[in-house]
Amino acid sequence: MDLRKVIITIDGKEFEAIEGQSLIEAAKNNGFYIPTLCHFKEIYPPLGTCRVCTVNINGKPDTACTRKVFDGMKVEVNTPEVLDNRKAIVEMLFAEGNHYCPACAKSGDCELQHKGYEMGISSSRFPHLFEERPRDFKDDRIFMEHNRCILCKRCVHEVKTNKGENVFYFQNRGHNMLVGMDYEKAKELTDEQVIEAARLCPVGAIIAKGKNVAKPFGDRKFDVDKDIKWIPSEDIKIDIPKDGKKKIVATTSLAGCFGCHMSLLDIDLELIDILELVEFNKSPLTDIKNFTKQCDIGIIEGGVANSENFEVLREFRKKCNVIVALGECSIWGGMPAMRNTLPLKDCLEEAYLNSISSENDEKIIPYHEDIPKLLNKVYSVSDIIKIDYYIPGCPPNADHIWKAVKNILFGAGEKVAYEEFKYD
Amino acid sequence: MKYAATGKDRTQLLEYLWEFQNEKGYISTSDIKKLSKELGISWIEIEGVISFYHFFKRKPTGKYTIYLNNSMISEIKGFHKIREALEKETGAVFGGTDPTGTFSLFETSCIGLSDQEPAALINFMPVVNLTPGKVKNIIEHLRKGGKIEEIKDEVKDYIRYKNDKGEPVLFREYKEGESILKLVKKHPQEVIQDIKDSGLTGRGGAFFPTGLKWEFARHSQSMQKYIICNADEGEPGTFKDRVLINQMPGLMLEGMITAGYAIGANKGFIYLRAEYRFLKKKIEDTIQHFYDIGLLGENILGKSFDFDISVVMGAGAYVCGEETALIESMEGKRGGPRTKVFFPVERGYLDKPTLVNNVETLCVAARIMEFGSEIFSKKGTENSQGTKLLSISGDCKKPGIYEIEWGMTIEEMLNLCEADDVNYIQFNGFAGTIRTKEDLHHIISGVEMGNKYNPYIRGGGSVMIFNSKRDVFDILTNFSNFFIAESCGLCTPCRAGNYLMGKRLEKIKKGEATFDEIEEIKTWAKVLRDTSRCGLGKTSTNFMVEAIDKFPEIFKEKGQKEKSFNLSAALNDYYDYVKNN
């Protein structure tokens, strides 16, 4: 059969493609990148589940993995509208599941995270759902972590026994859908097939027990994207203000680990230069407990877990002209929000009554009018007040924090470069 | 694919599951293990199919399983009272079975009886116009060992209007076999030409030109082609197909035979929604009768044309009304819509060219054969021909079926059905479009799309009328819950998006959302519209977006200028706990 060539146009550039090929593959063969999460190879019928590869085809939105190229096909991949649709879908996935990147074996090698960095997602426009999902340890070799599953269908399609029977299959429908595992069929897989299944999973939902080697730092797959040239965010040079007027900064740590503040201190010697430009008001760094004046910028670490966090946050909004949410906890709840899928009662009992402590006879749940009261769940700061900027990371890197804050204070707003993006 | 060893066929999985379900009220683990072996597919795959469909149960149910419709029409006609009465009389809680194992209660999406709500299905037999008193009698009767047959209702067909101004196309006298007599005298290409000339478009609501679809199917090269009659009438508020099937099952069969003859198919299926199981016998009797008189089977009317028809049962999934999801379901799979690499007329059921048409479309096609294309093309407006069945329900004195000619205004329609207090009209099901009393001059039509300057409205099928006493937020919440329940879950925007939208609506309803957050709904809706895999997700947010524009005052009342956070509500859990311990 002759391979007929067709001419397609992607973002104004003409490319040659083989008739019948999917658009996403044709684009890839021509070195043109269209992001996707479910597509991993050409299959018929295509999975078409994640919808991340949505582009405009002759003016109409459609997915690049499900459409075949045809002569005269005009594709728009990078219009602001299309970019925003794609970003929205990835944000939706982050909001739908429970993605605690710092606690995930796949972090750094995770395709969902990668898309987040690539698209510059520092916060999801959709409120996180925090719904309880199962963790399935039943199988000897495979751990299924449904909190992370994005229902891409890769494993359902691809992982089969030698007899061609499914090991994974969708269960339920709609919002309750999940990938079920056939434990008997899973036994028929070889060790290599199990590892292959874990590798196939774009996120950390299928974990091969004892085989997934976490690489916490360094040259992880998506820490630096080698395929795409990214322009680092501008490091603006700032002169010391002639009028001697310094910008006033306030910081606080709500429900977090103080790690973002530690990271701030990592700015190191440069802190001395910073003090030429800014003055700290209320902040753990200065130990100033109460605002003494209106501030230019308030930097918030941590989410809102109790009544005191709530009051402090409200005050920051009043006393600071610009509010920056620093780190994952403040942006969407982060690690403390792990309790959000459980009733408060269970958390209190586990922490104060059921766990082993050195003072076994004093098992009580602390209650005093002066102790901050726990909220039913951990809220993001944007649930409570309006947030102007988000700096992602757990914690964000010191240089990056300073660059971003500098840009906000003196430049044209903050922009995060790919290399600086981290959710862990 | 058939397994020689057992003679069982993977594509018949739904039927096997129905056998277990009907026999003992649920499907047991050993049933699944047995099927898994016989079909050579994994246990988890069968579990996946079962859990997709609403009417398959994995836990034992009572002797009587009662499904109560929870659509908005049911809600305004007394759903909550009936729900309460059912729980009280049976001793069961919704979602479960009573301690004696006699009654199981479940809610379900619209069951196609909107003209006689509240309605329920007891072991798939309908009971309509329920009142707490009637519920009491029914349950007492069953508890005493009475038969369901003795208390079930004969579903009435309220045909209120037969294009009285002109003449009807559908609701005229049915003369058995008339259309087939004319059909066999024509060449298939002529038949397609007649359908094209008539201007008939898909009556399921997508309005794709029927003649063109038939032509594509005819030109698909294959020895084996299929006709599927889509009788999975799941759009809430729609019940026209139920009435058509009950009134003229033969006309539907003749439509299928016509389509088969035209495109060169010799096998037809009727995919009947499980909610309409009470119509199954009538259809099968009619099919048998057609075989007896030579309208089905080999050499129909002496021509060398063979055609067979059989009925396939759905199992409770709205999305299966989407033609590719329907085909997946017919193949014994989860009813998820396919990616549209091929149209069904190219590769459909079992990858063979398949023509899927709605019941009404096929019935009209038979009428066109009988009377010629002009009976249809001469009616309607310049751009949209013919008549259309509307299913009207809600706050009006005469709910039922109306065969109207395109070109009627909303006002005329409301006069016919005697609706005098109208605040909110939902056209074309929950995924359709809203009209209010400002829009009475809008003309109901099939092709012209409505907009601000061009007062047309595309009339798909259902018209739900709500008066000024109905809380618009209750309506919106009911619709939103429906889409959350019926999204198949395959694609991100529809699965996660509808759920997130529902959460946002809840927030607005509680008066906790800012005006920005209300406006944001529109941008979220755009994402669903642009990126969803099938029509369900693409249209599932229309009502919310339109409601914001059509009822600005109610949103103004609920909206907040600044972010508000209910601190005391968030502290309730903590205080409750420490107080009790």
Please give a structural write-up:
The complex is a heterodimer of chains A (about 425) and B (about 575). By secondary structure, chain A is of the alpha/beta class. Chain A folds into 3 domains: about 5-80, Ubiquitin-like (UB roll) (Roll), CATH 3.10.20; about 100-210, Alpha-Beta Plaits, CATH 3.30.70.20; about 245-420, NADH:ubiquinone oxidoreductase-like, 20kDa subunit (Rossmann fold). Helix content of chain A is about 25%, strand content about 20%. In chain A, the strands form 5 sheets. Chain A has a 5-stranded mixed sheet with strand order 2-1-5-3-4, with helices on both faces. A 5-stranded parallel sheet of chain A has the order 12-11-13-15-17, with helices on both faces. A 3-stranded antiparallel sheet of chain A has the order 6-7-10. Chain A is globular, with a radius of gyration of 25 Å. In chain B, helix 20 packs antiparallel against helix 22 (about 540-550). Chain B folds into 5 domains: about 1-50, no CATH class; about 65-150, Glutaredoxin; about 160-375, Rossmann fold, CATH 3.40.50; about 390-465, Ubiquitin-like (UB roll), CATH 3.10.20; about 470-560, NADH-ubiquinone oxidoreductase 51kDa subunit, iron-sulphur binding domain (de novo design (two linked rop proteins)), CATH 1.20.1440. Chain B starts with a strand and ends with a helix. Chains A and B meet through helix 2, strand 8, helix 11 and strand 16 of A and helix 3, helix 18, helix 19, helix 20 and helix 24 of B.
What features would you highlight for this structure?
heterodimer; A: 424 residues; alpha/beta; Ubiquitin-like (UB roll); Alpha-Beta Plaits; five-stranded parallel beta sheet; 27% helix; 18% strand; globular; B: 581 residues; Rossmann fold; 5 domains; 24 helices; 42% helix
